[in-house]
UniProtKB/TrEMBL annotation, chains A, B:
This is Acyl-coenzyme A thioesterase THEM4. Its EC number is 3.1.2.2. Its main location: membrane. It is a peripheral membrane protein. Keywords: Apoptosis, Cell membrane, Cell projection, Cytoplasm, Fatty acid metabolism, Hydrolase, Lipid metabolism, Membrane, Transit peptide. It comes from Citricoccus parietis.
Length: 213, 213
């Protein structure tokens, strides 16, 4: 962690743009290595890994060249206590190598995301692992709740219905919306779509904590 | 991919032990980079990444030293058509960098797994992202169905109940068992436990395809 700064909060930056770009670049290389280790075997492994390590080394030799004209998608920010907070979200953060990442393309009454899943998300051949369908839907429904309900809410229950497999290697759409607000309870639902067809559906319940007296 | 071999299947190996160990080592470094990018900021990023790249380079310079005395956990195998098949499972495969990986410690009427989740799985501070609770439970319940029901089954529905957050950075237990078999339908349930307390519960329905006439 960087050392605590004594400058006023509005004159500090949590991290330079170049460092944020480097971190997101490294997360991207990790994604490529993760996928490549599952499609590369035997004598092909060493040259594959040498190429990927070469990309990282080149970035490290001149990290500032990497940042030229680039903007980090999820740079660190200061939290309410003035500490550096990194966007760790494992579904949407560009800095998290296990996040595909899923991208928010529309927000409002309905939230819409798009995502393309590489090989490391595979369950059945060329199809998304069922648990990771739940990952995409949980995140999307939570976002719809967060956008449409003012109180902070926690997931109480989530149900996924599997209708057809979600394909890897092509863009899929994830939709989510709030269906009912009843006091501290919020109900939401959503779908994963590929080629215009629903692959999975979700519905769930979010509850906001009782206000302190 | 390695070139097709003309040797009889039982005289072929999909990959040397050393290569399999290298692939699993590289997946492990990817896990460490994924976590480190979320806890390292600013000027600390370059030295952190240099150390990790150094570990990969050292392994690549002498991949056979890496394999001495090691056994790969998930080496490739030949599938029924004689093709090389890599264990891609994104929850349990040591070769998959997005798998924690979760380890099966007991199989039978009840299946038991153990897993320790690092920072890249974070939702709320120091707690597991809710979608990834579903990942662990989906995989565990599917395993219980697979061990206890002879027909191949596909997930039709999965419900997760969230009772308390799952902690990161400590071993947690995932349990799963079949509760009912009704023709082509199999029902299963399970829990994630930490410190002896249930954090999440799951129940679901798996269906095996109608036999061909």
């Amino acid at each position: 962690m960087a050392e605590a700064s004594t400058a006023p909060p509005d004159q500090r930056v949590p991290e330079s743009i170049q460092h944020s770009v480097l971190a997101e670049f490294a997360a991207g290389v990790c994604r490529d290595i993760a996928g490549g280790l599952l499609s590369t075997t035997g004598d092909d492994l060493v040259p594959f890994l040498e190429r990927e390590v070469g990309r990282l080394r080149q970035a490290l030799e001149d990290p500032f060249a990497l940042g030229e004209g680039s903007e980090p998608r999820h740079p660190p920010v200061f939290d309410r206590r003035g500490r550096i907070a990194v966007a760790t979200n494992p579904v949407v953060s560009h800095r998290n190598a296990i996040a595909p990442p899923m991208k928010l393309v529309r927000s409002g009454d309905e939230c819409e995301f798009t995502v393309e899943l590489p090989l490391q998300y595979q369950g059945p051949p060329s199809k998304l692992h069922g648990g990771y369908s739940a990952v995409l839907l949980d995140e999307a429904l939570w976002k719809a709740v967060r956008v449409n309900v003012s109180a902070i809410s926690f997931t109480r229950e989530l149900t996924i219905g599997y209708e057809r497999p979600v394909p890897l290697f092509e863009p899929v759409t994830v939709l989510a919306r709030v269906t009912e607000v009843d006091g501290r309870k919020t109900f939401a639902e959503g779908e994963i779509l590929a080629g215009g067809e629903v692959c999975s559906r979700a519905h769930g319940l979010w509850i906001s904590p009782r206000p302190r007296e």
